[in-house]
Amino acid sequence: MPRLTNPFAISGENVLLAYLISEMLPSTVDLIGLGGWYSRLAEPNLPCAIARSGGLAVVILATTTILNRSGFRLRL
């Protein structure tokens, strides 16, 4: 598997974790005091909003990959 798609494959093994991280992220950003800054990132124009969404997707992907590699699993 190519190195570029490897994080997607690892994150795809535990999609529920990625979903829960994405749902927890807004509260976490507000909790650490970055809510206003995060909201202002998307205000100037559409490309800024798209870049913010892409950056957030990379953060969620990286977090899920790190947790999966460390052995963290969610099971129903």
Distance between the termini: 28 Å
Tally the helices: what do you get?
A: 4
Number of strands: 0
The shape is globular
> From the alpha-carbon coordinates, what is the Rg to the nearest angstrom?
14 Å
Show the helix and strand layout:
Elements lengths: L5 H7 L2 H17 L3 H6 L5 H24 L7
What does the model show?
- The protein is mainly α.
- The chain has one domain (6-69).
- The chain contains 4 helices and no strands.
- It has helices at residues 6-12, 15-31, 35-40, 46-69.
- α2 crosses α4 (46-69).
- It is globular and about 40 Å long.
- The protein starts with 5 loop residues before the first helix and ends in a 7-residue tail after the last helix.
- The model has no long low-confidence stretch (mean pLDDT 83).
Short description:
It is built from four helices and no strands.
Using brief descriptors, characterize the structure shown:
4 helices, single chain, globular, mainly alpha, 76 residues
